[in-house]
């Protein structure tokens, strides 16, 4: 099964197909962030994400073989048509394998289909990826 980018707006979203424990998705996401030295602690990021959910924001989760292996927040400031991408993390076993670039491209494509025309990459890694793949300005 290929990598998928799935937008969620709650941490108990039913992404894991096999019988999942309560809070399994949230626990796995917290672990992803906790093992990423480039991001704040998992609980801190998930708290920010949950606050965003209340304002209609999304978290994209990269799923591969029924496991969350990547995540990035997709925020809307409500003042512009731009989406702010922030808090990119990838599972430790998948780092340095271009999964981050493929995942950001999937998120980008999904948001462009929704009509988004401008992106603001907050994290240095997201900015590098979007610059490298010429994703900062959507072509009309």
UniProtKB/TrEMBL annotation:
Q: What is this protein called?
A: PanM family protein
Q: Which domain of life is it from?
A: Bacteria
Which source organism?
Answer: Psychrobacter frigidicola
